[in-house]
Amino acid sequence: MKDLAYLNKFFYKYRWRLVPGIIFVIISNIFGVLPAQVVRIAFDLVTENISIYRLFNGFNRQELIYQIFGYSLLLFGATVLLLALLRGIFLFFMRQTIILMSRHIEYDLKNEIYQHYQDLSMSFYRRNNTGDLMNRATEDVSRVRMYVGPAIMYAINTVVLFILVIVFMVNVNLKLALYSILPLPILALTIYKVHNTINLRSERIQQQLSKLSGFVQETFSGVRVIKAYGREDEIRNKFAGESEEYKKTSLDLVQVQALFYPSMLLLIGLSTIITIYIGGIEVMNGTITSGNIAEFIVYVNQLMFPVMSLGWVTSLVQRAAASQKRINEFLNTSPEIVSAESSKLDVKGHIKFENVSFVYPDTGIKALDDISFEVKPGEFLAIIGRTGSGKSTIANLLLRMYDVTSGNIFVDGKPIKRLDIRQYRSQIGFVPQEVFLFSDTISNNIAFGRNKTDKEEVEQAAKEAAVYDNIIQFEHGFDTLVGERGITLSGGQKQRISIARALIKKPQILILDDCLSAVDTKTEEEILSRLGKNMSEKTSIIIAHRVSTIKNADKILVLEDGKIAEQGSHQQLMAKRGVYLNLYEKQLLEEQEPLG
Ligand SMILES: Nc1ncnc2c1ncn2[C@@H]1O[C@H](COP(=O)(O)OP(=O)(O)OP(=O)(O)O)[C@@H](O)[C@H]1O
Fold first, then answer.
1. Residue 420: DSSP 8-state
2. What CDD domains does the entry give (predicted)?
3. CATH at residue 494
């Protein structure tokens, strides 16, 4: 429950909705209880008037009495209607204040979580899966909303109505009051238990549904592999199995729900019978009137809803507390990478790694071991090495996705930790190994890193990435949608669009992480020669597998198991006749083999 205390700040923020909301609840309940008294008076009037009417049997006054009687009944009916109308109006206001407040809190909380997610570092995203992140920001927030809205509203409603009704009941007759509310605690407890079972089973359905949709999503994304391997039947059977499980859990839920209403009606009926029975005895004893029985029946029925909601509210609060706990877990996670506040930053592009070692915190893998190198503005650094040798890790550290385990990284002579991270990253153009394009137009994908871009800039960037000719061949050109809602691009096209996205930023430091692998050698040369012109004053770092890509680099780092095996220019490394030459000769052989 203490987890829910986090939400108190929102109650304070929206106090001018909450306080009037509570007042409206009280007023609406007063109008809800008063009709019972009107019913009692009307009932007593009926019994009295019937005897008077009979007394005047045979007199012409009887007709007059009949008329007066009719008018008074009409008046009572109209009063009940008016009270119901007033109650309705205040119920409307109650919802307009409290439920509206809950929607505002839901909005604030979602934004707060999303904002916090964005500040968290890469290791957080490695530790937690996307489904879980999404659930906490959506599903859990919805549950919390049920607490700040409906649960609070019905809880106040229940308390107010209870106090009012019990006071009225006890005023009439204490004994009858005690008897008629006797089954209510059993009703509250039953509803609480049943609700818990319903929630438990609903959750199981929800889990099974997520499993089912996850399965369907994966099989549709991997439909090519399924078809190519002829596994349609197996997949269909697996789907049928999962669906069967879903059906079973759904049927379980229906079973409890089917029991819910009949058992509730039974308990309500029981209360009414007790009221009539005990009330009848009291009427015979002359302690109450028959109108009081009618009044009590209205009270008992009025109490049903709050009693039912008591069980419901309790389970809502419990679920909200569990959800808020999960939300707090993430909100209390502080970002591992903390940006330094600094004045305006103009990156020149001088990078220095000094004895840098790095161990991935989540796996404990030592990816870099005592790495030292330097790149000056205007230089072209290439990193080459076998898969898993630590090349992408250098890019990760340079972008400060992680902090080094030991050693130092300097940018323009300053430790990287002392830079304002946002300003620094805004001056880096990074093309990751795994291309990611948003489900948006090609133009918006290219312009992603800039606040404002014009058409010419986008086109220019596309030309520099040698993808312009491909794009204009599409029916909608730069407005072509890519991804799920649009066309599927080839691997090479995707890579080049993501290069254009980095180039449009006119970065001071450009990092290309093995992003020319799906591009043919001719296009690769075209891209590299344009880069050479554009990046003449700036720093370029290219991670590659092919020696041909990096031959013209000012400096080449050859990585082996996280260590620098060799470094120097192509000529220097060839002359060394070591790892680099070995790699070069192997690749040359591979290229010639198909010909030979
Ligand atoms: N996010 C991560 N969390 C934990 N370990 C990682 C992570 N990324 C990489 N590693 C590990 O660190 C080592 C170096 O990986 P890295 O991605 O830097 O290699 P690479 O040289 O870029 O390989 P490739 O050429 O295949 O892209 C590998 O052993 C890898 O398993």
1. -
2. ABC_6TM_TmrB_like
3. 3.40.50.300
With tokens 């319903």, the residue in question is 198
**Helix count (H) and strand count (E) of the chain?**
23, 10
pLDDT at 204: 86
Residues 153-162: pLDDT tens digits? 999 988 898 8
Residues 588 and 439 in one domain: no
188-216 pLDDT, tens per residue? 888 788 878 888 888 888 788 878 887 88
ipTM of the complex: 0.95
Q: How far apart are the C-alpha atoms of 596 and 593, rounded to whole Å?
A: 5
Are 366 and 451 within one domain? no
> Do 420 and 339 touch, CB atoms closer than 8 A?
yes
DSSP state of 288: S
Same domain, 141 and 3: yes
Task: Please name which of 61, 341, 36, 66 lies closest in space to residue 168, comparing C-alpha atoms.
Answer: 36
Residue type, 344: K
* C-alpha 36: how far from chain center: 46
Question: What is the side-by-side strand order in the sheet with 351-359?
Answer: 366-375, 351-359, 406-411, 414-415
Nearest atom of ligand 1 to the alpha carbon of 368: 14
Structure tokens of 482?
Answer: 């890519």
Best residue for ligand 1 mutational test, from 127, 366, 392 (most atoms within 8 Å of Cβ): 392
Q: Are 513 and 429 in contact (CB under 8 A)?
A: no
The reply to whether 101 falls in a domain is yes
The number of the ligand 1 atom at minimal distance from the alpha carbon of 545 is: 25
| Structural domain that includes position 364 | 345-427+509-524+535-596
| Arithmetic mean of pLDDT over the chain | 88
Greatest alpha-carbon pair distance for the chain in Å reads 135
Q: Does the CB atom of residue 391 touch ligand 1 within 6 A?
A: yes
Amino acid in position 454: D
Distance from Cα 134 to the centre of ligand 1, integer Å: 26
Q: Which helix (H) or strand (E) holds 556?
A: strand 555-560
Residues β-bridged to residue 410: 352, 415
CA-based R_g, the chain, Å = 37
**Token representation of residue 362:** 């989540």
CB-based contacts of 256-264 (< 8 A; 24+ apart in sequence): 256/194, 256/197, 256/198, 256/201, 257/198, 259/194, 260/194, 260/198, 263/190, 263/194, 264/187, 264/190, 264/191, 264/304, 264/308
Q: Which residues contact 357 (CB under 8 A, 6 or more apart)?
A: 366, 368, 369, 370, 371, 404, 405, 406, 407
On whether the pTM is more than 0.80, the answer is no
Predicted local distance difference test score (pLDDT) of residue 542: 93
For residue 358, being part of any structural domain is answered with: yes
Q: Which of 128, 359, 360, 514 to mutate to test the pocket of ligand 1 (most atoms within 8 A of CB)?
A: 360
Per-residue pLDDT reduced to its tens digit, 552-595: 889 999 999 999 999 999 999 999 888 888 888 888 777 666 54
Q: What is the pLDDT of residue 485?
A: 60
Q: Other C-beta atoms within 10 Å of 147: how many?
A: 23
Q: CATH number of the domain that 86 lies in?
A: 1.20.1560.10
